[in-house]
Amino acid sequence: MSTSATPEDLAAREAASELLRALASPTRIGIVLALRSGSRCVHELVGALGLSQPLVSQHLRVLKDAGVVRGRRSGREIMYELVDDHLAHIVTDALIHATEPRDPADGAAAGATGTRTAGTRAHK
């Protein structure tokens, strides 16, 4: 993996933006977390997430189009897996960050929900 991306590298920023956009859903985050331990078929993901099959399939399609997961046929099923471990690290790091306690003096009193508390101002 190349780490030579710079703030001036528009193509790298756009690619990273597309990746983060694909991950920007609680359902898709759940799918990535479920796939950390290995390949799963849609029915296994439905059971693990407690969601409908059409909804899980729709989110898998977004993740597949973004290069986050890939599918391989195994008999009558398609087994989905993460393209690489970096993707699981991105999601787990984001979860850790989102659940860390925040010091209101740091200006993070809004927390992960994006709501403002009394007396705080919105960022511009």
From TrEMBL:
Transcription listed as a keyword: yes
SMART domains in the record: HTH_ARSR
InterPro entries per record: ArsR-like_HTH (IPR011991), HTH_ArsR_DNA-bd_dom (IPR001845), Metal_resp_trans_reg (IPR051011), WH-like_DNA-bd_sf (IPR036388), WH_DNA-bd_sf (IPR036390)
Every HTH arsR-type domain range: 8-102
Keywords linked to the UniProt accession: DNA-binding, Transcription, Transcription regulation
Gene3D superfamilies: Winged helix-like DNA-binding domain superfamily/Winged helix DNA-binding domain
Region described as Disordered: spans on this chain: 101-124
Record carries keyword Lipid metabolism: no
UniProt feature, compositional bias: Low complexity: 107-124
CDD domains: HTH_ARSR
GO MF term set: DNA binding; DNA-binding transcription factor activity
Lineage top rank: taxon: Bacteria
Protein's name in the database: Putative ArsR family transcriptional regulator
Source organism (scientific name): Gordonia amarae NBRC 15530
